[in-house]
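in:
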């Protein structure tokens, strides 16, 4: 089926199917199609030609108005410089917040606090284990869609025993807890990010769920774990992660990069440092966010986003950002660089990417393509907009808010918007931030 809804010629059973046409010809046809038609084409010919029918330049999943268009989602192609509408499967892309984007699959949080996987290119979706299996909640409350985290349960899982709990901000005994009132509270204040292992089928994925900064711990779920989340022992507060070279790798808020291994017998994940701690300091009045990236040659990089701090609950129209790139060199030390070669970086809620420019005129080498990944702050700004609680006039039509998505040049330090997205996304207060995604066909 094409993007226009007309039946597409050819099927897997046709004489001119994938076994009859050379991959080079299929790739040539594929590259000439409109970008949604490429999905339909790749679906037909994916079994034997998956390597040539790829989507190497990331797309954007754009926020949609859930009240006006509840059954659709919008995808924007950097290569085609335009957006198109796709069907939004229920529940994964209905009243959702995106929590991660890995290898063509989105992890989304629904309004009941549960996490789903969905491939927006095909509409296929799967549920991840129920969040109540994490073992840190007070039993029973989740049935009323209230989630009460017991500090003692959480600290026992994270530190592998106790009390007493050393260096706990909640005290040595871990008394008390915090309650999240429904799914929206969970997905903006308890969840941080979901990262998937490499694999085209979600049933073979392992998932790493990074909790919010207040908790800082990861949780893992695999098909072998019988449908449950596990919180491993971890003294580092995890900020970001990727799946690289067959393992999950993470970077902590304090700059330590670790690799995670799963014990085949116990199913427990343990971590070990793979590099010395990287120390960075943001400028005065700035906050920072770190992203872990693997270069095409396998080297690890940490991308640091420095941005203007928000002023409480008031919309800050002076917001801006800058980026630093730190590369793990051959001598095992971190070195800052502003030269990433003929490549571009894509960071945000997605599995961070380093994409070679090669023959892709639509991307600029030496740039960081970013999206907003502060879910709670974005929700607050949207709420403030709705009640007109702002520090200035609502009618400033000339203002451009570059929080949602932009391009930062490492060479000259400038930040620019993507003009082809149109002005609406830069007026601020998007209901959920846009997300980079590299479409894939299972």
């Amino acid at each position: 089926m094409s993007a226009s809804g007309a039946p597409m010629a050819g099927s897997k059973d046709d004489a001119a199917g994938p076994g009859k046409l050379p991959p080079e010809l299929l790739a040539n046809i594929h590259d000439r199609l409109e970008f949604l038609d490429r999905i339909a084409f790749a679906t037909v010919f994916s079994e034997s030609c998956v390597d040539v029918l790829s989507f190497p330049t990331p797309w954007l999943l754009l926020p949609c108005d859930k009240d006006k268009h509840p059954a659709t989602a919008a995808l924007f192609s950097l290569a085609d410089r335009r957006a198109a509408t796709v069907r939004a499967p229920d529940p994964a892309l209905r009243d959702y917040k995106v929590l991660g984007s890995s290898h063509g699959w989105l992890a989304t949080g629904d309004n009941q606090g549960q996490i789903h996987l969905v491939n927006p290119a095909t509409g296929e979706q799967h549920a991840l284990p129920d969040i109540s299996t994490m073992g840190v909640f007070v039993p029973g409350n989740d049935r009323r869609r209230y989630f009460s985290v017991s500090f003692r349960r959480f600290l026992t899982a994270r530190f592998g025993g106790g009390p007493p709990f050393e260096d706990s901000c909640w005290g040595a005994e871990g008394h008390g807890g915090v309650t999240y009132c429904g799914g929206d509270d969970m997905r903006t204040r308890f969840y941080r990010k979901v990262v998937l292992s490499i694999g085209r089928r979600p049933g073979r994925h392992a998932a790493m769920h990074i909790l919010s900064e207040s908790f800082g711990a990861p949780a893992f779920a695999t098909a072998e774990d019988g449908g449950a989340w596990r919180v491993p022992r971890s003294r580092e507060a995890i900020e970001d992660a990727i799946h690289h070279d067959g393992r999950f790798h993470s970077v902590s808020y304090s700059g330590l990069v670790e690799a995670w291994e799963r014990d085949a017998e116990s199913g427990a994940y343990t971590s070990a440092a793979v590099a010395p701690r990287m120390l960075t300091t943001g400028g005065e009045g700035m906050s920072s966010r770190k992203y872990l990236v693997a270069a095409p040659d396998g080297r690890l990089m940490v991308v640091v986003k420095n941005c203007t701090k928000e002023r409480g609950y008031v919309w800050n129209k002076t917001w801006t950002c800058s980026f630093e790139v730190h590369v793990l060199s051959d001598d095992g030390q971190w070195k800052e660089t502003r030269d990433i070669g003929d490549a571009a970086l894509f960071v945000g809620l997605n599995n961070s990417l380093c994409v070679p420019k090669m023959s892709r005129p639509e991307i600029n080498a030496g740039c960081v393509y970013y999206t907003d990944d502060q879910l709670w702050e974005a929700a607050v700004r949207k709420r403030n907009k709705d009640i007109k609680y702002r520090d200035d006039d609502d009618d400033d039509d000339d203002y451009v808010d570059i929080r949602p998505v932009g391009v930062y040049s490492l060479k000259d330090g400038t930040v620019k918007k993507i003009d082809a997205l149109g002005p609406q996304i830069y007026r601020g207060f998007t209901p959920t931030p846009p997300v980079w995604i590299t479409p894939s066909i299972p």
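note: The longest helix spans residues 35-49.
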